[in-house]
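Follow-up to my earlier ticket, as requested here are the two runs.
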Amino acid sequence: MRIPCKIFLVLILHSCAVFPLLCAQGADPDLPVQLDEESRDSILLEYYRAAWEDIDSYDYPSAIAKLRRAKQIVNSHSPPDLLWLIDINEALGFSLTHIGRLKESLSVNYEITELAKELEDEETYAFTLSIAYNSIAIIYSQMHFFELAMDYYSKALYIDSKYFPDNREFHYMNHRNIGIASKHMGDYETAKIHLRRAMEYLQHPAVNSTDRELALTYNFLDLSIQSADHASAHRFFKKAANLRDQITLHPEMYIYGYELTANYYLLTGDTTAALKSLREAQSNAQQSQYSLPFILCKLYSLSSRVLMDLGETDEAIELLNHCLDLQLPDPQSPPDLIDDPDAVLRAKSSITRARFLEIENRGDLENKTSSLKELLLETESQIEMLKSFITSSLIPHSRTRLVADHMTVFETGMEILYHLYRLTGKRDYVNEAILLADQSRSILLLEDMVLKITADEEIQAAVEADRTLKITFDSLALLLYEFPAAEEANQLDKLQLENQLAEIRIQRQELFANSLLQQPQYLAQMIAGRKARGETIEHLKKEGITLLTHFFGKRNFFVLSTGKRGVYFEKKDYTEKPREKFLQFRQEIEKFPSVIGNSDLHRAHLEKLFGLSDIIYNQLVGGAAEYFTDHLCIIAVDETSVFPFGALIFDYSPCGSVRYLIEEVALTYTYSLKTLELILDKSPGSSTPARIVAFAPDYGNDEIEVVGMDGKLSLSPLVYNREEAILLKRELDALSFIGPEATVSNFNDHATHADILHLSGHAFSNDNFPQYSFFAFNPDSTRGYTSLLPISDIENLKLQASMVFLNGCRTGYGPIQKGEGALSLQRAFASAGVNSMVTTLWPIDDGVGYGVASDFYTALKKGNDLPQSIRHASLELISKKDPIHSHPYFWSSHVSYGHWENPLAVRNSLFTPGNIISLGLLLLTVVVIFLWRKKHYGSSNV
């Protein structure tokens, strides 16, 4: 007997329909297992019906017990009846999900996918897989692995479109589920498209019902609230109220409605009405014994947030503890056994936040300090739990989103450390804050770096297998992007492509789980495994380097600096909208060429630039400047990763004299302290001169097609890029590929053996499709290579270069990914294993680019490190006092990232500075001993 369980799947996540009633009496749990086929089927039917009757009564534990007994009976026969086993597993998975035992349910549903492979009837096979994929997707959604859920939704959508094209009910649920998952990921446009498709299917008589219409209206209301669309939220709120009066609501649907009502009132600023709605929801929730734990936790979490804003911290903590009771029957459960770590983390971090707010207002200094230290330990424990959580994430990009979702954990820790520093003045708290903030950054880049430097053959094999899958994925993704405007006949072909992409992602996730996660070395090195060492900060101080970094939370942002001269730790608010100011400053610098020759526009431009610089300098630097040494290392965060710090005005006199920050300090950027630590750990130096390889292609207004761009991109001729390659060949004995020889094939042949790579030519930053940002080489038809080297290919390289100089337009710029910085060519080379890079933040002039490169390498030859050399090149332009080329547009675009060491220096030879000092001390010791012995024996002879 097959019950169409798919019509219940949407209830698991959204609780918006009524369960079917399967009329039967309870089954006897003590019946024997060994039965003839007819008796077995009769008893199984009784168990099955009784279980669904329990489900209809919300008695899921009883249903689970009956279903497990039924499964035991089926498995006692050889071979077991596949259809019975599948039906029972579907009901069992449904019940386990409903009481929050997600990992058990996931295992049951994966078992269904394996059983389905043994089915002979194709339609039954498709139907079974569709149900299992939807169930798996829903479970992953509840676990907040929305990216993974989307892959399984895509597979279910393809199956339903291929095998059940006329089943509008299936299509309604598929589009609705995809819309909801997209909303959770912040992709509001995609969410809107799929929810509208669901609404179209809902109009059909076979699908339409008032409870489904209300459920979908709630989804639209939720989407409108999340996207802060006040007008749409008001419209759907009114519609939901009208529909709600027409039906008797399922208890969980009732609670969900109250939650959305509270969120609507919060959107409108009516906190009192929101709190009233939440209290009513709590009352109803407590009467619904078997409500979904994750729904109740969301409700308690929202209520606690409102209560904390109103200063009612005790009640907030009480509600959050209710959430923990639901999620943690055993408080000592290890992280990997927690079904919903996201909800547990939110509850724990909110409790810590509530306790912090209580402690913050205490007057007793000693008790206040002691309590804050206890809270700090709790925060560190939560971060460790988050690390375990993100380590188990099978999709890499889920990790950065999960960290962003839990930024409150880090922000509360930052506030605790800030208060401890203010109370005690101990600089150790500043260092701890830097290490804490660092754990929220560069997670994907760190993983790439670890995989590039590992010597473990099993890890290397897994990485190579993953690379093969990714190449196939990229080619299919391009086909999907270029898919023609689909007529109805082409829709299935498009869905098949999406299904293939989903399948490859799932294979990559399985490879990650079954190979990489089993390797201790990999786990130990991952960002989720450990944080940067405090010794790294001490090492930088000994090198005379000052660290400057920032932490952007949801309520405040922090400025942190540490070095030989002292520490700086300050909390700022968002009244000046710093992120907007960063963008405006960049845009104003890039605007400079358009104001040249117009004195009025030029004057207005400078006034705006100086005004923005003053605001941003106070925000990002401020009092930290008094502790700066000659070398400043900036741990760049999000928008600051593409911000020209050197162009900030350090001093401005009334007579018009301007001094920029670059004139005071040498600047270098790094993605995180942890990435810098890995670079330092793998940089033993070289005992031979650096092998330099340079590329300078020719261009002749070549027109190329760019993914995501209408029309074609023209590559204009350049002159000075050839001069750079000639200069490097003449002055530094570089292997220079110029004009027709500057091909991708020559790059692939020689780049992996180079110590220094220099690329000078046209680069393109693709804002819409960053994986297709590229550096343009010359065509090489003989080898079958394209002339473009995209980010996706660079990331797959394994380079040993200590430095790459990318002298092209916007080679260090790209779309900002939270926690990762700019998705740029620069980042791709960092991912490929390069220690340090010199890149550009905006389009550069051909001749000026040559001048910067020439001055940079001249400074390197004299023994300067990378930041000093870039500073030297900038000062050469500033010192000329030319009203054009001394403008930041020309000199502040070039920045250095990563290790600061001079890549031309020969290290680990006999005559390194360290060895010279050691030899000198040894020689001095020998001389002293010789003189002492001479004096001693000389006096004896007399």
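Run two:
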Amino acid sequence: MERLTPLTLWALAFGCCIGWGSLIMPGASFLPTAGTAGTTLAILLGAAVMILIAYNYHFVMQRNSKAGGVVTFTKELFGWDHAFFCAGFLWLAYISVLWMNATAVALMGRNLFGDTLQIGFHYEFAGYDVYGGEVFATLFLLWIFGVLFARVNSLTKSLIRIAAVMLLVSVVACFLTAVSTSTEPITFYFNNRKPIWEQVLIIFAMMPWAFVGFETISQYTNEFKASVNRAFPIMVAAIISAAVVYVSMSLLATLRFPEQFHASATYLISLQELSGIKAVPTFYVISETFGTSGLMILGVVILSALTTSLIGCYRAVGNLTQVFAEEKLLPHCLASRRNATIFIFVVSIAIPFFGRTVLSWLADVSTIGATIAYGYASACAFVIARREGNRLAKFTGGAGVACASVFTFFLLIPNLWSINVLTQESYFILAVWGIVGFAYFNFLFKHDEKRFGTSPGIWITMFFLVFFASLMWMREKMYGELTIFIQEINAFYLSNSVAPRFAYTNMQIDNMREVLLQNTMILLMFTLVALSLLFRIQLRIKRKEVAALEEQRRRAEESSRAKTTFLSNMSHDIRTPMNAIIGYTTLAKRDDTTFAELKSFLDKIDVSGKHLLDLINDILEMSRIESGRMELEPGEVDLKKNLHDLQTMFQTQMEAKGVKFSVDGEKLRHRYVMCDKNRWNRVLLNLVGNAYKFTPSGQSVAVTLAELDDGQYELHVKDTGIGMSEEFAKKIFQAFERERTSTVSGIQGTGLGTAITKSIVDLMGGTIDVLTQKDKGTEFIVRVAFDIVDNPAIIDEPAPVDEAPAEDDFTGRRILLVDDIEVNREIVLMMLEQFGFVIDTAADGREAVDMAAKNSYDVILMDIQMPVMNGYEAAAAIKKSGNSVPIIAMTANAMPEDIKRTREAGMIEHIPKPIDLAKTLETIQAVLKNS
């Protein structure tokens, strides 16, 4: 897949920010509302807020670089309900911007080319003339850019890069040329008709719409060519570029004006009375500045603006559609770029038939959608920053949420601070979209109760939004109807002075009553539908919670029963070696025990003790798995050597038992891989160990490891032993499960081996299956993928040490032994003094620190759990004092996280308890050689 370069990412973000609005809005909306000073100030403030929100996006992207942007962030942090809510409004925002830029062709065509496209059928919609030529031109534009997006990816990237650079350069060039040739200097002024703060606030409220698109970068992280850390500078560059274009076009619109006006301010206020190129100040100034070549330059600017915006928006909507399909929010067939494009085009077909009026309605809706997305991104940043203790990101996240809230309330609530922003049609669209969202979520929730239904509060918010939007629509609708009502009454009595005084008024009041009834019924319909859907969602959530509680109760009962059985088995299995240990210890104490008998008793005590240690290790390992603390530590592994070691380890045992044993690795094409060697060995040992235990003499055990495809491995461990019942085979991988026949058959074990094995395989991303038949045998099949190592390092693995190392003269070597348990100190003293070590002892960490400061030692053996000062603290204190004596942890804290913590405290090796003499000597010898 061809990756997106930083320039392409900038062009895509810049393209969504800039479109028809950069050419039309400065003269048509910004300047008449707030003048040059208010417009410039509002744009700069808006750019600053967008940069703050961009930082929030970047902060979250560094911790979650999956494709999907804010929807993915929201899903991970707040759950699927919030993600669905955010996804719906974000998709609506981008599809609205796409539709606005496509339908702008008709408006620009009328201003530049007159009635050229006004051919074919004709009708009027909401006071706007719609012509067939304009409709089909818009559809053609949507189709051609859809084909480019779906089919010609490399050409699309080149086009948007070229168009974005041309747009920025041409706008700046036009502005500088107009400034240098204009007889009118740039003057900064506010509109005198409203307070300054009100003027700035109205334009500032439009900034989420004006800059929508910079965040698209967060959706393409899976296509980044560079590091995700470069996303923030690219977003800032896109925001600044958009601000430059908006400010330049706003100031440019004031540099020239038609002769019938005495100032640009008068010209801008009178735009509604003009037509053609004069109705768009930016078009007029460029054409007047460049004369005959003005239209050509204007064409380049318009073409560049439309190309960047349509490609950018098509890609944004298409990518969102694909991500939603992959996440099963939309049908999975839309996960391909081609099908996503077809879907976008199909839902866009009706838009051109509504005419240009759709522009003002959708502009407000896209602003709301973008603001909701910004709020969620900032909330994600705030939550993560609070967890990490990052003060800067916590501040920017909180500030972003506050800004998004201000934008939302300012836009939604009409006449807030005496300012009216949204049109009545925008409220209607929001209400309809809310109903559609309710219905679609209800459909998804019905078919997927696991992911959805975790945040009932968000659906109460959605209901409030639907109710509020429909109520505001009715309010604005009635205000408009009342205005017309008063105007018609005044006009009637002015032209009919002799008419009865109240006859016409009463008739109009009756009409108004009918209109009020109709609008009230629409409001009631919206409310009832939303309430009905909310009730169904809440009911389903309640049923889900009840079902979850019932499932928890059932699992708790099953777990209790399983643990009871497990404890019964453990009682048996632990007492068996303990019985041997205590029994043979009692026999060894007899006065008439011979040396040969004593040695035999000690050997049996040793075997039983090791078996007891295996039982404890299995229980502890299962505990770590259930708590989610088991992690993989991948490294280079030679799979063939692994199999050879496995065969060496079990061959003698199998032969002694009379079991035929074979290991086959001939089908391995790549023997060197990256995996967690210890965990993989645990899988092999557990499966082969089980096969050995449950396979009687005269039968066979076969191990086969094959590579099915590059990096795809399949392990088979097959025996012809006693097998399992069909019922137990279904529960073989559950913890605390053992088959009754194995419990009473004298075969020792915890019943945790297969559960641990499955957990390891799952952690590796693989699968494990079992095929078994009673009295016929069992076969375990493990499928797992490993990364192939093409240039493996030489792996030197020392052979297992069963006896003390050859170089065993440690005479005069001084050791400080630190342990708070006297019997532990005594055992280690007796073990090590026979090899010539001079050993001092300390009973706690504080005593060890003092002795290390007074005396010189070759090595310190440090316990961890001690009174006064523990081993971690003591080791850190010794190292902090400047003492370079090597410290070895000798402790019963033997988990991987314990070993990691000893390293962090300054200890260079780790010896687990119970003490293995050979391993202890080997470790001390290696440390002394390296020190």
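The only thing I checked on run two: The first helix runs from residue 6 to 17. Let me know what else you need.
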